[in-house]
Amino acid sequence: MAVKTRRLRDIPLAFTMLGPSLLVLLTFVLYPLGKAVWLGQQTCNVQGKNCKSVGWGQYTTVVKSDQFQHALWVTVKFALITVPIGLALGVGLAVLADKQLRGMRFFRTIFSSTIATSVAVASLMWLFLLQPSVGVLANLGWLRDIFPVIKEPGLLKDPGTALWSVGISSIWANLGFTFILVTAGLQSVPKEMHESAYVDGAGGWMRFTNITLPLISPTLLFTTVVLTSRAFQAYGEMDLLTNGGPVPQDSTTTVTYLIYGSSSIIKNNDGLQAAVAVLLFLILLALSALQFRGFGKRVHYGS
Amino acid sequence: MKTPNKSRFLLAGLTASALLFASCGGGESSSIIDSGSTEAPATGDSSAPTAAPTTVATPLASLPPCDTTALDAVTETVNITFWHGMNGDLEDSLKALTDEYNSSQTKVKVSLENQGGYEQTLDKYLQSSQNSRPEMVQAPEYAVQVMGDTDSSVPVGACIESAAYDTSDFLPKALNQYFTEGVQWSMPFNVSDPVLYYNKKVFEAAGLDPNKPPTNMAELRTMSQAIVDSGAAGYGLSLDTGADSGGGWFLEQWFAKLGELFSDNDNGRAAPSTKVNFDSQVGIDLLTELQTLVNDGLAYNVGDNASGQDALLKLADPDKAAAMTIATSAALGTVLTTVQGGLIPGITTDDIGVGPMPAPGDADAPGAIVGGASLWIVNHDDPAKTAAVWDFISFLITAESQSMWAAATGYVPVRSSALEVGAIAEKYKTDPRFKVAYDQLLQVADTPASLGAILGPQREIRTLSARAIATVLQGGDVAAALTDAATQANALLSAYIAANQ
């Protein structure tokens, strides 16, 4: 009883302390979110005004539409391409650079340099390298002999290779981010454990799988979740490299591109855009929960 | 990690599986844009009466007023912001003009704000509230209906009337592009149209007259055959399917050249269009012609044109180049600068030829519709601001300004008196390539058909026709691709009318 009254007495104080952040959250997160959910069942005029409710069925229509299903499938493929490869490359480079050798700082700087490259810069660079008529890569004789597609029709213009090419550009651009996170994770691995395992006769691979990986697993989980949500929200690459194309296959029209892309047919329909965005939010929410739940058990957070 | 809340996890799992199930669960295919038209009249039933309003004229008196003398009384400098979408060389020239205006007088100060491009400018404008909109905005040619429907501008027609401004030497086509419902909504500023770029050296090597480019597709076919057979180049023509070029804008151009309406209600100029006509026999013939050119190895399809220059760059391909392509005249300045910089081995500026856009089939159909963008006065219920914007606009369209602007960029001057002064007078004399785009606009009398269509969701419809053309150039069935695109375009038109009337 006494505990309960004390708790009740704490409520005004709690609200005073939490008030500022609550206010910020309500104004900038919850209110816009609620507004987007509501907008998702409306249609509006060109200015986004005079919105009329057309019913929650609009969400069902979107979910059932070819465009949304196709975009969702492309997005899933994009995540399946970029997340595992990006993570593996990031961990590989970080482990290689995690040695006390002369000149290692130089390599660390190079490996992490892509974090300072914006998506736009990275994409434009790839665009010019891959441009099929005059691009440098497209006109390398030996490369063309191995991959004729790089010249005709061009990696970004072939429905079969466009998503992979955008994916590679995205992996490259995100590599610095993964590298830095994993390097930080590696530095928290106690050297003594490696030394004692070494004395016990464990080889390099064994030490990596039995000591390093478990100890950096929290970092890996975090990186996976962030990379996945980045993959689901990737936009700049598609906008600059492919415009969601090639059409009519729409090989790189992801969900975000469907919402906002310059060649999206719903780009001036606020209601449909909001509906797709809310659905993307729900999918990401569910996916992150699944990731934390699924990998969470295997993650070692120390004792 | 603590055991996560079971029910929360269950909820997440259920949501994910429900969405995936709904997505993957078969059912008939449906399009996302059908949902936008739930309140609109049923589409696909051509016998249904059109729901569009039949009114034509919006009297000027019912729109925000313009008093051009309001600037006379101001004592403090009026600051105006101008959102534009000009980049690179074009932006430099616009800056030069604006600096000249700002230093020429003290009553008005213009600040330029680059929004990144036409698309971005228009999107940002539409999504802003009236208070956060600038005093002046540059909107692309496909946005006339949308901009008019925002009820956010002072029509320049009101200012023309108030100032008794003389427009008699303006290109009628340029003004008419921005004239609907009896109102001159905006002022043409940067006018362009598509022209044929070709490599004169290749023409010579193929035994063709380098000063006689093809004027229609039949001639283009014969010449391409000669070019390919002689081995002078890999292809005759390079084509793209971008919405702003070969996939959308050019299709409208070809309909206008043939004097065919692109959409009903007089191309949307008598009343909002309810259906498009590109699935007609005219459209089928046109696309079949392009498809045959590609199938026969005479034309090369560069695809979506994501970089904006893919079709032009095919002319510089070291391996199997194309001899010709169709692109906007606004690219001419940049093309010549690039070639002059020596970036493209084996081609000099003198090798670049420019001709009129070829007409479909064997038609003798010169002429073009106006591309580019126009200037809009945004209504802030402040007569001084409106008058200040008008003052700046009237500076940008003087013969001198237009002459400088056209000579620097390749855009077409909006008035004929510009041809007698300054840089463009000299340029048109010494380099007739710059004049091709101008001459094209004078060739045909202005009718609703030759002026081209004004559509609400014009940009989205170009995306749809671009998709159809891409399908066709990859070997798809012409009639089916066009019917599919037209059905979706008509659904967009109905939805637009329902939401904006």
How would you portray this structure in words?
- The complex is a heterodimer of chains A (about 300) and B (about 500).
- Chain A is an all-alpha fold and about 300 residues long.
- Helices cover about 70% and strands about 0% of the residues of chain A.
- In chain A, strands 1-2 form a two-stranded antiparallel ribbon.
- Chain A is flat and about 70 Å long.
- The mean pLDDT of chain A is about 90.
- Chain B is α/β, with parallel strands linked by helices and about 500 residues long.
- Chain B folds into 2 domains: about 60-190 and about 370-445, D-Maltodextrin-Binding Protein, domain 2; about 195-365 and about 455-500, D-Maltodextrin-Binding Protein, domain 2.
- In chain B, strands 1, 2, 3, 4, 7 and 13 form a 6-stranded mixed β-sheet that branches. A 5-stranded mixed β-sheet of chain B has the order 10-9-11-8-12. Chain B has a two-stranded antiparallel ribbon with strand order 5-6.
- In chain B, helix 15 (about 400-410) packs across helix 16 (about 420-430) and helix 19 packs antiparallel against helix 20 (about 480-500).
- Chain B is globular and about 70 Å long.
- Chain B starts with 5 loop residues before the first helix and ends with a helix.
- Chains A and B meet through helix 2, helix 3 and helix 12 of A and helix 1, helix 3, helix 19 and helix 20 of B.
| Beta strands of chain B, count | 13
CATH class of chain A: Mainly Alpha
Shape designation of chain A: flat
What share of residues are in beta strands of chain A?
under 5%
Put simply, the count of helices of chain B is 20
Helices of chain A, by number, come to 12
CATH class bucket of the largest domain in chain B = Alpha Beta
Oligomer: heterodimer
- In round numbers, the mean pLDDT of chain B is 89
Look at the helices and sheets of chain A and give the structural class: mainly alpha
Question: What is the CA-atom radius of gyration of chain A, in angstroms?
Answer: 24 Å
